[in-house]
Amino acid sequence: MRRVFLLFGLIAAGAALAIWFADRPGMVTLQWAGFRFDTSAGVLFALVAVVAIGAAAMYRFWRFLRRAPRNLASARRARRRRQGYRFLTQGMVAVAAGDSSEAARLSKKADRLLQEPPLTMLLSAQAAQLDGDETAARRYFEAMLDEPDMAFLGVRGLLTQAIKAGDSAHALALAERAVALRPKTEWVIEELFAQQIAAADWDAADDTMLQAGRRKVLDPEIVRRRRAVLAVAQCAALDAAGDTGKATSDAMKSAERGCKLDPSLTPATTMLARLLAADGKIGKATRLIENAWRRDPHPELAAVYNTIDAKSGSTGSELDQVKRTQRLSGNNPDHAESHIALARAALSADLWGEARRHLDAVIGQADDESDVGARVYRLMADIEMAERSDAAAAGRWLAKASRPDESWICEACGAVHGAWRAVCGHCGGFDVLRWRTPRNLTPPAPDPADLLDPPLDASPAVLAPT
Predict the structure, then answer these.
(1) What global pTM score does this model have?
(2) Is 292 exposed, middle or buried (0-12, 13-18, 19+ CB in 10 A)?
(3) Which of 84, 332, 380, 448 would you call most buried, defined as having the most Cβ atoms within 10 angstroms of its Cβ?
(4) H or E element, residue 312
(5) Measured between alpha carbons, how far is 401 from 37 in angstroms, rounded to an integer?
(6) What is the CATH number that goes with domain 314-403?
(7) Partners of 31 in the β-ladder
(8) Is 374 exposed, middle or buried (CB count within 10 Å of its CB: 0-12, 13-18, 19+)?
């Protein structure tokens, strides 16, 4: 619209100027090189206007001719680029569809048209992977490392290949490089953490979580929980390394850090209590277990507590065991674990009625008898045999033991473990063991290390959080 108004304005100005010259005809004489020109002012003005317009047109035509080769080349490049991007897009669609031959064909066309290898290397690498040519794909990924904008994609591709090939050392190095390139990308942090866990490098994994927390890449609660579990894993590794002064001191510091990061983490409590008792700090170890029992009773807490108390110089008789258990259970007297611990101690001291009373309390707390763990019914059967030698009554109690006892169950794969550990020995998951009733009475193949785990009533073991 503005151009229309401008055009009409120019026409009106020209008409007004022509009328002005017509009203003032005047004469103009031009002498040059022996020639003389006589004309009116209006004609001279029109002649000058025609010459100016002609000169402008010639200039624009000359500019068009001069720029024509470059414009044609630019138009051709733009057309090739559009076609190249179209082939690149179609190639990505072919990769998504799993058509390796079509993806490779389109990748070559896109590379020929675009002539920018960084844009097509990823497509070429993915096409090679679809075709099963991991060597060619690795060459493309390695070539990406030389391009600043593509380096991260190259590292990611090589990392995926290393994980698939089971090359843990190379995968760890690539994960570290990926974090250096993208330190605030969550999946990169998670992958590095997974590789460090697979290598049992607890110190490096703890540093990774510490940095993730500082950069706010992961939720603070997740970071705190993982660091607590890592502290217990560090403690167990140091404790198993040997009975040296430095190893014991470092193990105790790790256990203390685990308790501080997550006070509800039972493994940290049991490990720290055992180390404190070994160091002669019986009172501190005892208070630690009692506080943990007050929060959330667990059978292994009772086992560690009795072991600690026995080291304090008590006679170790069955009645002393009952008194020790009563002191512990008094911190949470109504909990089922308190009743079970007291029943076990009373049974050892031949206090049949007391043991039966506590087991009846456990059964009474359950909504249904099938919800009671098998260990309660086994204890009832033991009472019948010890007190009355009544095999028939004992058999009736054992017949009710249809529900398996709680165990350390992997939430990821369902494997049953005899003792808690930071990493599942069956699937390699981190912090996935929970104390609960197995859903499947036929557990997966056990971890060979579980064959070395002590039974529930043996020496204290590292436990899982409840």
Answers:
(1) 0.71
(2) buried
(3) 380
(4) none
(5) 131
(6) 1.25.40.10
(7) 36
(8) middle
Residue 28, H or E segment: strand 27-32
Where in the chain are the domains?
314-403
Which is nearest to 101 in space by CA: 141, 80, 132? 132
**445 Cβ partners below 8 Å, 6+ apart?**
415, 426
8 Å CB contact between 224 and 192: no
Q: Which residues contact 367 (CB under 8 A, 6 or more apart)?
A: none
Long-range contacts: 106-109, Cβ < 8 Å, 24+? 109/84
Q: Nearest-CA neighbor of 132 among 158, 108, 100?
A: 100
Give the whole-angstrom CA distance, residue 158 versus residue 138. 7
Sheet holding 433-436, edge to edge: 416-417, 407-410, 433-436
Type of residue found at 74: S
Amino acid at 428: G
Distance CA(320)–CA(141), nearest Å, equals 69
Task: Please provide the size of the chain in residues.
Answer: 466
Q: How far is CA 36 from CA 30, 32, 47, in A?
A: 6, 7, 16
* Interatomic CA distance for residues 301 and 463, integer angstroms: 9
The pLDDT tens digits for 93-135 are 665 566 667 767 776 666 666 666 666 777 778 788 777 888 8
Question: CA dist 366 to 196, 301, 435, Å?
Answer: 43, 22, 18
Query: Would you call 139 exposed, middle or buried from its count of C-beta atoms within 10 A (0-12, 13-18, 19+)?
Result: middle
Helix (H, G, I), strand (E, B) or coil at 445: coil
Among the listed residues 119, 117, 152, 157, the one whose alpha carbon sits nearest the alpha carbon of residue 137: 157
Please give the radius of gyration of the chain, using alpha carbons only, rounded to the nearest integer: 42
Residues 337-394: pLDDT tens digits?
999 999 999 999 989 999 999 999 999 988 877 778 889 999 999 999 999 999 999 9
